[in-house]
Amino acid sequence: MYTQGFALLLALLAHGAQATELVYEPINPSFGGNPLIGSFLLNNAQLQDDLKDPDAVDPRASQSDLERFNDLLQRSILNRIASSLSSSLFDANGELVPGTLETSDFIIDIIDLGGGVLQVTTTDKTTGATSSFQISTAM
Q1: Which 8-state DSSP code applies to residue 56?
Q2: I want to staple 63 with a disulfide (CB 3.0 to 4.6 A). Which of 67, 72, 74, 129 is the partner?
């Protein structure tokens, strides 16, 4: 009984092993890997990074709600990539229209100061705080 098992084992070992050549293929594009995977690797690394700089200051943490809203509105107006709110602020030619617009939380006043300068003032209805910036419409 043991001899049959031993003979079978010897037969399997004598059959010859099949092997292929090992080929190293880098993954990281910095070391010759596919450059299309670079953004995937970077995003994974950033997601796994749980270390935070204790001295780092989040600029949004020091801004009030009014300042954050005003900053968003300013970028929206200057870049003209506005949604329904800013579509009310522009005329058919894409120029700012002086006037007042109210949302549930803010009052937005656009005042023509003359000489191609418009002043946009945002008022927080809850606190009464205001913030403003000026835009030159003259090119």
Answers
A1: -
A2: 67
CA-to-CA distance for 127 and 63, rounded, in angstroms?
15
| C-alpha closest to that of 45 among 61, 60, 30, 23 | 30
Q: Over the stretch 83-114, which tens digit does the pLDDT of each residue have?
A: 555 566 677 777 777 888 887 788 888 888 88
Per residue, what are the HEC states of 57-116? Answer: CCCCCCCCHHHHHHHHHHHHHHHCCCCHHHHCCECCCCCECCEEEECCCEEEEEEEEECC
| Residue position matching structure tokens 């522009």 | 90
Locate tokens 């954050």: which residue? Answer: 68
Give percent of the chain above pLDDT 90: 4
Residue 87, amino acid = S
Report helix, strand or coil for 5: helix
